[in-house]
Specification:
The complex is a heterodimer of chains A (474) and B (217). Chain A has 474 residues and is mainly alpha-helical. Helix content of chain A is 77%, strand content 0%. The chains are: A mainly alpha (474), B alpha+beta (217).
């Protein structure tokens, strides 16, 4: 990503974030492939890079690349929204390097040290062993410092420059997003208390603050890529915030069905999490509506050209609108009611939902933001899809949908055999895993994972070359 | 000037968003106080006096735990019975049992258990759920896992397995050697026994009750 056309330092910093995020995205897919191979060939890298290590790297790289791309997106849009250069950009750049270096150290320790003795030094320096936030305690403090610096820059810039609705939403959202991380930074012997607060980080990130972030980014994208009216877009944004937080915050109850917490979470979790798909429907309609409206207005003026000034980015944004609804909304709703969740909790069903939701809700829109970064860096006025753009989006999407369908079938086998028929014991578990439908599903998952990775290679090729493609309008 | 409808007023929707978010957050925080009180760990006196806690104290390792249908609640609940020896003793003090649980919980995180297994149903799906693993018939006197390790009690069999997992394959997919020491294994088994006593609202359903139903028995 060349920076020659960028006069804003904030946007330059954004491209650094996007670049590092793209590298980590590759690492996420590679370790995902290792884990997928291990389901099919359990001896693969046994006692070298065990499934647990591959999976830690798979899901940690996922979370971290998304956080990097989110920070990048905010640094990208701030100058456009506020009309000024981002305040504290020097500190922002320093924090980028600290963050990136810390991530490299954490990853090397995961890979080379892997596990430690059962004492506090392991928790501080090797792993905290809590899914998604395994990063050792020292890194937690580093992340808090980096997040504080980021939120500080966002607030100072928002207060000094023009504070649009989008910036206001981001300010409120990013402070909640950063603050929630603190809920995952303590040790307790009581595993119910442990998981209660662990969900404050995981759920209130991905089913509340991250979703609101996506709403704000989609709003920014509609204004910059289509020229949609700010007033309409921001009104929708506020409605989405009400619906997302209104359902998502108490929707947390669907994680409190079986961890030792009281029965009343059944009703609260069922009701509010069942409402969670609604804002996602709203967001989908919102994107398509604004697209149609802006295009229609232009056609009415007799101009028969597309209103979209960045085809690849907009493709990913539309995919986000639908993928968020399908992956987070529908695949989440499938197993959110306690009567169903009693049997699906802790099966590949969750994994199927996880794959489609993280992709549909977050990966898509963040890849779209990366394309906006390439457009800006190369001074492109109207950016078209190249062959590689189309191969990338097609292969990645079919790969992820294919993995999701495979994992859903595997989940059904687990639910029926291991849970309903056999009663969830050790033997029940392996009876389910040995079933033909399960093992075939895992073969397909591996194949679809490879398809996804092939799509990623096209994406990187496109990132590196599309800027110089002659078909774009300058 | 025509009157502008409140429904198309951004300020109205901004305020609505703030109120809805505030209300949901306050409700969550209020429920958190109630839940925190209900899931705080019990103590030895509770166990001695038969006070039922959702998360019993660490000395629950001195007692026999079963998982039985509660007809009133409509699902199974852990039932704490009479004394039962754990590594040859049933008189662990609150401090001793607490130290074992502490070691076990630390161990569960230091060895990344949750990135293959599920605990209370959360984690990875590459290996069996451990929520009620202490109660798994396979570790019991007639069980295949106990027989495989050549030990005579549940806890010794589990501890042996944890220290040398790849010596005892139960499937093509095996648990790797994680350098678990004898003391850490004891702690981990205490942690698993304690976890099985947590009231999980009937999760997992029918645990250990159905054997071989797949084959029509």
């Amino acid at each position: 990503m060349a920076n020659n056309h960028l006069t804003s330092e904030s946007k330059q910093l954004a491209t650094w974030y996007f670049t590092f995020a793209a590298i980590l995205f590759g690492a996420q897919l590679l370790f995902g492939l290792v884990a997928a191979i291990q389901y099919v060939m359990p001896g693969f890298l046994f006692e070298i890079i065990d499934f647990s290590i591959a999976r830690i790297l798979h899901i940690n790289a996922l979370v971290v690349w998304m956080v990097f791309a989110m920070f990048g997106s905010v640094y990208w849009l701030l100058p456009d929204e506020t009309g000024i250069e981002t305040v504290g950009i020097k500190i922002g750049k320093l924090l980028f390097w600290i963050f990136a270096a810390a991530i490299v150290v954490v990853v090397l320790v995961y890979l080379l040290v892997q596990v430690g003795p059962a004492d506090e030094t392991t928790i501080w320096f090797i792993t905290e062993g809590r899914e998604y936030i395994e990063a050792p305690r020292w890194a937690d403090f580093g992340i808090v410092v980096v997040a504080l610096g980021f939120v500080g820059n966002l607030f100072l810039t928002g207060m000094k420059g023009k504070q649009t609705g989008i910036v206001t939403v981001l300010m409120a959202d990013m402070i909640a997003f950063s603050g929630l991380y603190l809920a995952g930074m303590f040790f307790t012997d009581n595993i119910s208390v442990d998981q209660y607060w662990w969900w404050w980080v995981i759920h209130l990130w991905v089913e509340a603050t991250w979703e609101v972030f996506v709403g704000a980014i989609a709003a920014y994208g509609l204004i910059t890529m289509l020229g949609a009216h700010r007033k309409t877009v921001e009104m929708w944004l506020w409605i989405e915030v009400s619906m997302l937080f209104g359902s998502g915050i108490l929707g947390m109850g669907h994680h409190y069905f079986w961890i030792g917490t009281p029965e009343y979470w059944w009703e609260i979790g069922a009701l509010f999490s069942a409402l969670e798909p609604l804002p996602l429907v709203a967001m989908f309609i919102h994107v398509l509506y604004d697209w149609g409206k802006t295009q229609g207005e232009q056609n009415a003026q007799g101009k028969d050209v597309s209103v979209i000034n960045n085809k690849p980015a907009f493709t990913w944004f539309v995919l986000n609108a639908f993928g968020n609804f399908l992956g987070a909304g529908i695949w989440g709703f499938f197993h959110t009611l306690p009567q169903v969740n009693l049997y699906t909790h802790g099966t590949q069903f969750t994994s199927a939902h996880g794959h489609l939701a993280f992709f549909g809700a977050y990966a898509t829109i963040l890849i779209g933001m990366m394309y906006m970064g390439i457009q800006g860096s190369n001074g492109i006025k109207v950016m078209k899809n190249t062959k590689a753009s189309i191969w990338a989006v097609s292969l990645i999407t079919s790969g992820v949908v294919g993995m999701t369908v495979s994992l859903t079938i595997a989940g059904y086998v687990q639910v029926l055999v291991s849970r309903a028929q056999m009663g969830a014991t050790w033997a029940a578990y392996f009876d389910g895993q040995s079933g033909m439908w399960f093992t075939q599903a895992m073969d397909w998952r591996l194949f679809m994972g490879a398809v996804t990775f092939a799509g990623f290679l096209f994406l990187i090729k496109d990132f590196l070359s599309t800027g110089k493609d002659a078909q774009h309008e300058h | 000037m025509a009157n502008k409808s409140v429904w198309s007023d951004n300020r109205f929707w901004q305020r609505s968003a703030a109120w809805v978010t505030g209300f949901a957050s306050v409700l969550l925080i209020w429920l958190t106080f109630d839940t925190s009180a209900q899931i705080s760990m019990g103590n030895d006196a509770d166990l001695k006096n038969g006070v039922t806690k959702r998360v019993p104290g660490p000395t629950v390792i001195n007692y026999k735990i079963t998982y039985e249908m509660d007809t009133k609640r409509g699902h199974e609940v852990p039932v704490i019975g009479g004394k039962e020896k754990f590594f040859g003793r049933d008189d662990y003090s609150e401090e001793e049992a607490g130290a074992l649980l502490h070691l076990g919980k630390l161990g569960s995180q230091a060895k990344n258990c949750m990135d293959c297994h599920t605990l209370l149903g959360n984690g990875a799906y590459y290996a069996p759920d451990l929520t009620k693993s202490w109660l798994d018939p396979a570790w019991g006197p007639e069980g295949s896992l106990q027989a495989m390790t050549g030990k005579n009690t549940r806890e010794e069999a589990m501890a042996e397995f944890l220290q040398h997992p790849s010596q005892y394959p139960t499937h093509e997919r095996m648990m790797p050697n994680l350098g678990i020491t004898a003391e850490e294994a004891k702690g981990l088994v205490a942690f698993l026994k304690h976890m099985s006593s947590i009231d999980t609202n009937g999760f997992p359903r029918n645990f250990g009750k159905i054997q071989g139903a797949v084959h029509g028995k």
